Amino acid sequence: MRMTAEARRDHLLDCAWDMIAADGVEHMTLARLAQRGGVSKPLAYEHFISRSGLLAALYLRYCQRYLDKMRTEITQAGSPQEAADLLAHSYVGCILGAGPAAVALEGALCGSAETEAVRRSCDEAFLQACREIFAQFGTDAPSLITLVAFSGAAKELTSKAESGAFAAEEIVTFLSGLLYPR
Question: What percent of the residues of the chain are helix, what percent strand, and what percent coil, each to the nearest 5?
Fold first, then answer.
């Protein structure tokens, strides 16, 4: 059965994610992806143009899926504190649930101007989503600087959790307290 271009692209992105999870991002090439995805090299290049294009597309999809899930989970919050708890839980759950592939992928995006721009764009989309979520609570919303601090702390702490330095619930409690000190 022949796949649509969109279905083939999704299939290749799924294959790329699995490859990064298994072998790390440093071994990712479009040629290896084509082989794993069962397509020709020209098709892989048609979809992503370059390795950087593949990594950017993969990260954009990862971020969009997380933002969609986060919005769904947090829209049910009845208070800013509950929203902060849900946001912290959602963020930590997303990173730890994605495993080392997410951390490796984000690290790989720091290598070029093109991919760095994608990473910054995703960070901005996250901050904007947070502002929208907390806007419903009026003046009780965390400031932008607080949200930026939350994002930076969340990234660093979840990477430490993967090595066992911190428990997930400990991180969730800390991050929630950054947004709304108890």
Answer: 80, 0, 20
**Residue 55 belongs to a domain:** no
Q: What is the pLDDT of residues 41-82, one digit of tens each?
A: 999 999 999 999 999 999 999 999 999 999 998 888 888 899
**Residue 56 is assigned to a structural domain of this protein:** no
DSSP string, 3-64: PPHHHHHHHHHHHHHHHHHHH-GGG--HHHHHHHHTS-HHHHHHHHSSHHHHHHHHHHHHHH
Give 3's DSSP letter: P
**Contact (CB, 8 A) for 62 and 109:** no
Tokens of 27: 């071994």
Residues 67 and 127 in one domain: yes
Could you tell me if 94 and 14 are in contact, meaning their C-beta atoms sit under 8 angstroms apart? no
Residue 161 makes CB contacts below 8 A (sequence gap 6+) with: 92, 96, 167, 168, 171
Q: How many domains, in total, are found in the chain?
A: 2
Q: CA 144, CA 139: separation in Å to the nearest integer? A: 13
Sequence-ordered list of residues with C-beta below 8 angstroms from that of 89, at least 6 positions apart, any chain? 73, 172, 176
Q: What is the pTM of this model?
A: 0.86
